[in-house]
Amino acid sequence: MDRTNSTLKVLEAKAEKQLSWAAIAEHVGAAEVWVTTALLGQATMSPEQAAKAGEILGLDQEVAVSLTIPPFRGGAIQMPPTEPALYRLYEIIMVYGPAFKEILNEKFGDGIMSAIDYEMSIEKKEDPKGDRVIVTLNGKFLPYRKF
Amino acid sequence: MDRTNSTLKVLEAKAEKQLSWAAIAEHVGAAEVWVTTALLGQATMSPEQAAKAGEILGLDQEVAVSLTIPPFRGGAIQMPPTEPALYRLYEIIMVYGPAFKEILNEKFGDGIMSAIDYEMSIEKKEDPKGDRVIVTLNGKFLPYRKF
Amino acid sequence: MDRTNSTLKVLEAKAEKQLSWAAIAEHVGAAEVWVTTALLGQATMSPEQAAKAGEILGLDQEVAVSLTIPPFRGGAIQMPPTEPALYRLYEIIMVYGPAFKEILNEKFGDGIMSAIDYEMSIEKKEDPKGDRVIVTLNGKFLPYRKF
Amino acid sequence: MDRTNSTLKVLEAKAEKQLSWAAIAEHVGAAEVWVTTALLGQATMSPEQAAKAGEILGLDQEVAVSLTIPPFRGGAIQMPPTEPALYRLYEIIMVYGPAFKEILNEKFGDGIMSAIDYEMSIEKKEDPKGDRVIVTLNGKFLPYRKF
Amino acid sequence: MDRTNSTLKVLEAKAEKQLSWAAIAEHVGAAEVWVTTALLGQATMSPEQAAKAGEILGLDQEVAVSLTIPPFRGGAIQMPPTEPALYRLYEIIMVYGPAFKEILNEKFGDGIMSAIDYEMSIEKKEDPKGDRVIVTLNGKFLPYRKF
Amino acid sequence: MDRTNSTLKVLEAKAEKQLSWAAIAEHVGAAEVWVTTALLGQATMSPEQAAKAGEILGLDQEVAVSLTIPPFRGGAIQMPPTEPALYRLYEIIMVYGPAFKEILNEKFGDGIMSAIDYEMSIEKKEDPKGDRVIVTLNGKFLPYRKF
Amino acid sequence: MDRTNSTLKVLEAKAEKQLSWAAIAEHVGAAEVWVTTALLGQATMSPEQAAKAGEILGLDQEVAVSLTIPPFRGGAIQMPPTEPALYRLYEIIMVYGPAFKEILNEKFGDGIMSAIDYEMSIEKKEDPKGDRVIVTLNGKFLPYRKF
Amino acid sequence: MDRTNSTLKVLEAKAEKQLSWAAIAEHVGAAEVWVTTALLGQATMSPEQAAKAGEILGLDQEVAVSLTIPPFRGGAIQMPPTEPALYRLYEIIMVYGPAFKEILNEKFGDGIMSAIDYEMSIEKKEDPKGDRVIVTLNGKFLPYRKF
Amino acid sequence: MDRTNSTLKVLEAKAEKQLSWAAIAEHVGAAEVWVTTALLGQATMSPEQAAKAGEILGLDQEVAVSLTIPPFRGGAIQMPPTEPALYRLYEIIMVYGPAFKEILNEKFGDGIMSAIDYEMSIEKKEDPKGDRVIVTLNGKFLPYRKF
Amino acid sequence: MDRTNSTLKVLEAKAEKQLSWAAIAEHVGAAEVWVTTALLGQATMSPEQAAKAGEILGLDQEVAVSLTIPPFRGGAIQMPPTEPALYRLYEIIMVYGPAFKEILNEKFGDGIMSAIDYEMSIEKKEDPKGDRVIVTLNGKFLPYRKF
Questions:
Q1: Residue J48 in 3-state DSSP?
Q2: Rounded average pLDDT over F11-26
Q3: How confident is the model at residue D2, as a pLDDT?
């Protein structure tokens, strides 16, 4: 079963059982962003994690197995994103990207923030003037190798 | 003087005086990411901030004035970014974007994280296994208006 | 049921029952543009609104439920739009966009008109020289946050 | 003198004389959006209007004459717009465009809202919860000719 | 029934009955280019015209009804056209477009030739050196509105 | 002198001498559309035609010579055209193109209308309901060679 | 039956009967490149040719008929071609195209090599240092019409 | 001196001295297509060839030297080509490309026609019905290596 | 059976039998990269190799035969690649490509590294600081032919 | 001095002094590919390396300093590359990329080969049947972080 179908099965099961991503993640025993990412076909679960996910969602064995195979990433959305919630992230790169690179180079030297040795969280901060979304990107700094 | 030229003047002055973005930001009295963004032509300074920036960088009056005019944003980089440090942010949208939207909708309802009522920081977290880049995105949640 | 299918069901039901968007909107109890937008898969109804829409259109429960789930917006049309009625809006951005930004900045300062805290209407103004289409865009001004 | 240069001259003169678009428009005797559009190289002034514009802005004869020549429109911005204030208009087409076409066809029949026999205004509506931008698009309905 | 399917039904019926576009157009009682355009899903027939078309082509009621609904235009071909007969028209815009605009502005003033209040014909002119295709574009001139 | 510069010289001379394209064409002794096209750098004049054009416009010898060299065509506008007067022609291909190909094949067989052995005219037809632009495309039919 | 399906039928029949393109072409009685092109849906056969092709390939009547209808050309491959054998032709245009145009203009005057009144062959020339592919393009020169 | 400038110098010298490509090629002692390609910045001359070219064209030493440096190929034209003479070659790939690959594979096996170990000629074949352009592509067949 | 389907059959069989690419390659008797490439539809097997592959994977005769037909290469992934493991290769071309060309020209003269007479390997080099991927590209140098 | 200008100065100096990349790299004391990459504006030198490079090339202090500032990478070439030597690398990704990912995942698990902690070499392997280019890519394997 390919990942696109397996993602559909996950979404159907989640809707039918009325589970939240938070509840699924807790059952699987990993971070909410990561578990959601894996179930949407963009990360690879261990057999134990896939079994846990299969258990709470009532997935077929075939679907659970597919969650353990490294996916072909990135095809789930078109770029630039048409969905406004994702476009705002894209816009942030255009507006704040030049400053990001300057400050990264100043603080760390020449290199990048890894998107592989990387984790992220999405939190809600209540605020009387309007709640705020706090997204934390946490990636290892990788200095360019000189050879 | 248009913003492209004024950005060049800022970069030349910064290089000549060997100032860091952190030092300039402290003198201007605002956050490092924001001050850098404004000096790179992607945000608008108040006259007081522009005066402070002009003071530490030794900018001409004409350059300082240009910093107070709302810029035409987003033209500083091409998309997808060719620079690896910026491409990693772009890749994060492709890989983690679907999960971001799911979790945002689950935690906040239908809407977006604003990229306008928005601030961000870039910090270094030392780690013996390799220092980590911590980027915090902090935007107001905007629920879709029903009418 | 995904939104694309649910939109098809809505359009079939509307055609079969020969209902106007205006009549549906009145029954749902919200603005014509918004109700049409939601039924075309670009906005999220409350359960009560979806029940009302399901009632007048005779939709299956499954379809009605799908109307309450935040959609992945923007995929319904390609850009630039090939349909002439939509291309004219696109052309308006190219021709009047520069003036829009200048006047927005002059009247409101640096910021944007929100497309989220936003509503719009489409009205017919009769005119002997040819009726006119009056489209009103009404969005909250969001000033850029300085930090 | 081509329109790109003539636009630059206008912007320099406006900055130097610290004139608002509203003041210039009043002097020229036409609507603010239209006068701004013409001065930004996207519409054609009559010789009288160009003379008035030249007067208040102190433009050379050569610049004033260039304002009376039909421009090659639309090249002033790239699409999709990178500037957030303009991108929001673009997003509105993607999200509300399908409903716009449905309602237009329902209210007027098969045809378009003209972008040529067209006018628009941009107004500020004060609101304690945040001022609102009111943009009114007013275009003649053009029914498709059958032949 | 959507327009893509209804176009297929039309083409099948036309092939089976070995009708020419000219014959169908004569039966429908409108111009050949327009009737062909409508049957290919790019224009809207009146109920009477659709009935006539249904009669000669032997179409189901459902197909005939679909011909009376304003279509979403322009999706039938990709641009630039890969088909040589259509690419030549595209090339004509690139080569003769600049002259077209100059002459249009000189003869009519600032404005456009409407593609909505528009009709066209395609005729064969016999010529011993090779027959010639005569395409006549006939559109209302629309002057730009000043406001 | 390359064609871009030579086009600029032509436009400057035309503006300075306040000549119409019609007057220049009459002096050169060829059709208005063709002469305009050649002077805009998209067709090749004979030495006699170039001399005539140079005479009426007062062009340098170098400019006149450049008009006799086959140009690299098609670079004068971007596609899709941003200028509304040209975009309407582009839209006509999308909307009427499928019918054009059907009728061409029906009337002439498999082949194309040449864009090389081709001429066109642009005329004004006065009409109390609004003047009409009549564009006539006249190209040799080229049947596909079978081999 | 549309051309895409009819091409599939041809390829299946060719594989099943283990026929070469050369053998099919000989049976049809036309050039190998042309017959292959027609059977791949990019040229139009006469009824006699289609009958011959149907005979040797054992095609259904419906498939044979489809070969006689002018196809919508060019959609069989994406550009730039991903297949290396076709990309090399594309690269040849980029590298040798400028010289081709210079020499064409020098030898023939202003015009093009027709791709319609055109034929081509693909031959093998044995060579001890490696066999060579000899492709001959043979198109009528079409001089630009002056009018 | 970079190749773009050196190409301009070549073209200016050729125009001034009224030399044909054929005459230059004869003086350099290599094929017309190749010499033209090299002088247009898409191939590399030996020092002797560059000296010969410099001699007949009267080029500065600096220009002649630049002709001996391997160029960065392919940037001289945009794809798809806007110039009709080059577009026809591009169209030939779309229309005849699928047949080319089929026949190449049938005659030679799996592999490509090299565009590196490659030569080509452009000849004029007089014909009372219209002269014909004969382009011969001659490339080594390269079989795919199995490993 | 087309190659896309045959690739799916291969992947299903491989998953079901829990075979590694290394094991399959050993059975087929060719290099791991090449066998994997062929089974993914980007290279052509000999009948013997296809039989071997069919044997170990338990493929239908029809699938095995399809492996011996030259494929239409390159359509398996979109460019730029969205999958991070492949994007890194793409990025390497952008960052190290200019140096690759300089050094290639310096060491070999004007020409290319063949991608046809080409082989590659992917090895793991264990390293306490993190294992390393060693990819070796080995292509014949092809000098540009002068003619 | 920005990197584009500084690259030009390097290339001019290298040409004038007739130095090879190999000789410069030896003087700088780092690998040939890396030194060439840095001098072409895609990597960052230490002050000592820049001084060495400045010494052998006779660069101004300003140029030497620019070599020590992290560049904005990737803008030196367009993608897909038009230069054949670089396009072959691009083609290799399309043809061998799917196998690369399969084998990488099989040998290393889910992750990527780093393009940052990365080095490469380009060597010449003499071969009587034609010399071979041996390119070795050597990047750290980065496993995807689970969180």
A1: helix
A2: 96
A3: 79
CA–CA dist C92, D114 (Å, integer)? 10
Q: Tokens at residue F100, please?
A: 């054009």
**What residues form DSSP beta bridges with I121?**
I136
Point out the residue among G74, G115, G116 whose CB comes nearest to the CB of E83: G74
Residues of B in contact with I80 (CB under 8 A): 80
Mutate to test the interface with B, among C36, C66, C147 (most CBs of B within 10 A): C147
Q: Is D88 a catalytic residue?
A: yes
Residue F36, burial from CB neighbour count under 10 angstroms (0-12, 13-18, 19+): buried
CATH of span C3-66:
1.10.260.40
Phi-psi category of residue G67: left, alpha or beta, with phi > 0 → left and psi -120 to 50 → alpha: alpha
pLDDT mean over J30-53: 97
Q: How do A132-143 and B132-143 pair as beta strands?
A: antiparallel
Neighbours, chain D (3 or more CB pairs < 8 A): A, B, C, E, F
pTM of the model: 0.96
- Of residues H2 and H8, more confidence is placed in H8
Residue A75: the pLDDT is 87
> In terms of Cα–Cα distance, which of C23, C29, C72 is closest to C48?
C29
Chains in contact with chain A (at least 3 beta-carbon pairs closer than 8 A): B, C, D, I, J
**Domain extent listing, chain E:** 3-66, 84-143
Q: Are the beta carbons of F135 and E133 separated by less than 8 Å?
A: no
Task: Select from C57, C58, C61, C37 the least CA-distant residue to C47.
Answer: C61
Cross-chain CB nearest to G136 (options H90, H129, H136): H136
Q: Are G120 and G89 in contact (CB under 8 A)?
A: no
Q: Give the model's pLDDT for residue I3.
A: 84
- Three-state secondary-structure class, residue F115: strand
Task: Compute the mean pLDDT over every residue in chain F, rounded to the nearest whole number.
Answer: 96
Question: How many beta carbons lie within 10 A of that of residue J26, not counting itself?
Answer: 13
**What share of chain F in percent tops pLDDT 70?**
99
Please, where are the H alpha helices in C3-143?
Answer: 3-17, 21-28, 32-39, 47-57, 61-66, 84-108
| H 11-40 → G contacts, CB under 8 A | 20-22, 32-33, 36-37, 40
Catalytic-residue membership of A91:
yes
User: Tokens 């170098």 identify what position?
Assistant: F62
Three-class SS string for chain D? CCHHHHHHHHHHHHHHHCCCHHHHHHHHCCCHHHHHHHHCCCCCCCHHHHHHHHHHHCCCHHHHHHCCCCCCCCCCCCCCCCCHHHHHHHHHHHHHHHHHHHHHHHHHCCEEEEEEEEEEEEEEECCCCCCEEEEEEEEEEEECCCC
* CATH superfamily of this structure's domain H110-147: Cyanate lyase, C-terminal domain (3.30.1160.10)
- CATH code for the structural domain at J111-147: 3.30.1160.10
Q: Which chain A residue shows the shortest CA-CA distance from C75? A: A82
Pick among B5, B77, B82, B96 to test the J interface (most J CBs inside 10 A): B82
Residue G50 corresponds to which amino acid?
A: A
* Strands lying side by side in the sheet with A111-125: A111-125, A132-143, B132-143, B111-125
What residues contact J19, with CB distance under 8 A and at least 6 apart? J56, J57
CB of C111 within 8 Å of any CB in chain B? Answer: yes
Please give the Cα distance from H80 to B110 (Å, whole number): 43
**Any idea which fold G84-143 has?**
Cyanate Lyase; Chain: A, domain 2 (3.30.1160)
Query: Mind listing the pLDDT tens digit for each residue in J96-143?
Result: 999 999 999 999 999 999 999 999 999 999 999 999 999 999 999 999
Please tell me the predicted confidence (pLDDT) of residue B12: 92
Please tell me the distance in Å from I23's CA to the nearest CA on chain H: 16
The model's pLDDT over I120-146, given as tens digits with 9 standing for 90+, comes to: 999 999 999 999 999 999 999 999 999
Task: Compute the half-sphere exposure of residue I11: CA atoms within 13 Å on the CB side of its CA.
Answer: 16
